[in-house]
Amino acid sequence: MFKPQIKVPATYMRGGTSKGVFFNLTDLPKPAQVAGEARDNLLLRVIGSPDPYGKQTDGMGGATSSTSKTVILSKSEQADHDVDYLFGQVAIDKAFVDWSGNCGNLTSAVGAFAISNGLVDKNRVPDNGIAIVRVWQANIKKSILVHVPMTNGEVQETGDFELDGVTFPAAEVKLEFVDPADGDGALFPTGNVVDDLEVPDVGTLKATMINAGIPTIFINAEDIGYTGTELQDDINNDDAALKKLETIRAYGAVKMGLITNINEAQARQHTPKVAFVAKPVAYNASSGKHIDAGSINLLVRAMSMGKLHHAMMGTAAVAIGTAAAIDGTLVNMAAGGGALSEVNFGHPSGTLKVGAEAKKINGDWQVTKASMSRSARVLMEGVVRVPQS
Fold first, then answer.
1. CA 290/CA 81 separation, integer angstroms
2. Burial tier of 204 (Cβ tally within 10 Å: 0-12, 13-18, 19+)
3. Using an 8 Å Cβ cutoff, are 277 and 228 in contact?
4. 103, 256, 303, 372: which is the annotated catalytic residue?
5. What are 221's strand-pairing partners?
6. Distance of alpha carbon 140 from its chain centroid, rounded?
7. CB-side exposure of 274: number of CA atoms within 13 Å?
8. pLDDT tens per residue across all 389 residues of the chain
9. CB of 155 within 8 A of CB of 112?
C-alpha cells in the first residue's frame, strides 16, 4: 500500500528577484527539525528535485537558481537578535541542498515572515512605521537588519518601489548587512585586492576574490571575451561559455581556500560566485528597457548555480558594493576608481544601487556595513504536500 501525502505548513514568498518556500522550524516534521538527511530529503521533495528533465514540474521550484530555494526560520537563539534564518539552495537536477551561503534576495522576505508568524516580540513591532527585524543569518553567522514597513499592525507589502527584475512595484524593504565579511573576517582570503588566477585552457586572469555577503570571484569581462552587456541567452545557450566560467569558479574556489581541489566544486555549487565586470556602456535590458551609460557606474554579470543570473543575487550585490568601496579592486576600477561609498550597476534586468562602508584597520581592509533596497511579498500561504517517506 502506498503511503499518503503529509501536509507541512508553508509560505511561498518572493523576496527581491528570487522566490522560495518558507517554513517555521517548529512546523517541520520532527526528523526535519534538525540538520541532516531527513531535512534535505523533505526540501528536495517540496521543490521537486532531483529532476532529470530540469523543470521541477512535480514541486514548488521554478527550474532556475532564483526559484529553487528554501528558508527555515525560528526564534533566535542569539543575543540581541529576533530570528534565525537558515537558507537552503536546492539543486535542480541533483539530490543536493547547498547550505554553504546566504540568499540576499530572500533576506528581504525574512522580516515580513518573522513578524507575521509571531517570531518577533510584539513590543519591537510598531503598528505604523518601520519595524527593524534583527536577523541572524545562520549559514554564514552574520547579522542583518531588515527594515519592514508596517501599516495598521500589518506588514505593508504594496507600494511604489520598483526593482529591476521584478514586474510589479511593491513596498521598499531596506537591508543592512552588518560586518558582512565572510568567515574569519578576512575580506581578501589571499591578502591581495587583485590576484593572478591561473586557469588551465583559459589563461591567467586578473581576479578580485572577496568574502563579503558571499564569496565572490570578480574578473574583467574583456579578459574572457565579453563586453559586460550580455543577457542570459548569450551565456546560458553556450555550453562552452558555461564550462569556461565553471572552470574559472572552481580554480578560484581553490585559490580562496574554500576547497582543496577543483573536483570538490561540484559539491559546492552555491559558493563561491563568479562575476565579470566592465566599464559602463549603454545596453538594452532583458525587458527591453534602455540603460544609458551615464546612469550607471559599471556593468556586472554574475553566475549562479552554473547559469547567468537574470538580475543580481543580493549577496553578490553586497560583494559588489564592498569591492567598489575599496580602491584598486577590479570592481572599483571598472567603476572609475577612487572613494566609492555607493554604486549603481547595470545587470541583465536593469540596474541596482548598493552602498558599503569600508576602512583599513591595522593594514587590513574591513567593511562595517553594506546596504541596499529590495521588496518582498507573500504569494501563497497554507500547506505544502509531500509524499510521506
1. 42
2. exposed
3. yes
4. 103
5. none
6. 12
7. 30
8. 899 999 999 999 999 999 999 999 999 999 999 999 999 999 999 999 999 999 999 999 999 999 999 999 999 999 999 999 999 999 999 999 999 999 999 999 999 999 999 999 999 999 999 999 999 999 999 999 999 999 999 999 999 999 999 999 999 999 999 998 765 558 999 999 999 999 999 999 999 999 999 999 999 999 999 999 999 999 999 999 999 999 999 999 999 999 999 999 988 989 999 999 999 999 999 999 999 999 999 999 999 999 999 999 999 999 999 999 999 999 999 999 998 999 999 999 999 999 999 888 888 888 899 999 999 999 999 999 999 98
9. yes
Over the chain, what HEC string results?
CCCCEEEEEEEEEEECCEEEEEEEHHHCCHHHHCCCHHHHHHHHHHHCCCCCCCCCCCCCCCCCCCCCEEEEEEECCCCCCCEEEEEEEECCCCCCEECCCCCHHHHHHHHHHHHHCCCCCHHHCCCCEEEEEEEEECCCCEEEEEEEEEECCEECCCCCECCCCCCCCECCEEEEEECCECCCCCCCCCCCCCEEEEECCCEEEEEEEEEECEEEEEEEHHHHCCCCCCCHHHHHCCHHHHHHHHHHHHHHHHHCCCCCCHHHHHHCCCCCEEEEEECCCCEECCCCCEECHHHCCEEEEEEECCEECCCCCHHHHHHHHHHHCCCCCHHHHHCCCCCCCEEEEEECCEEEEEEEEEEEECCEEEEEEEEEEECEEEEEEEEEEEECC
Cell of 375: 521588496
pTM: 0.91
Structure-block grid coordinates of residue 120? 518577533
Pairing outcome for strands 97-98 and 350-361 = unpaired
Known catalytic membership, residue 60: no
Letter for the amino acid at 111? G
Q: Three-class SS string for 213-248?
A: CEEEEEEEHHHHCCCCCCCHHHHHCCHHHHHHHHHH
User: Which of 13, 209, 305, 313 is an active site residue?
Assistant: 313
Q: What is the dihedral of CA 254, 257, 315, 116, to 10 degrees?
A: 120
209 is known as an active-site residue: no
Distance CA 374, CA 366 (A): 24
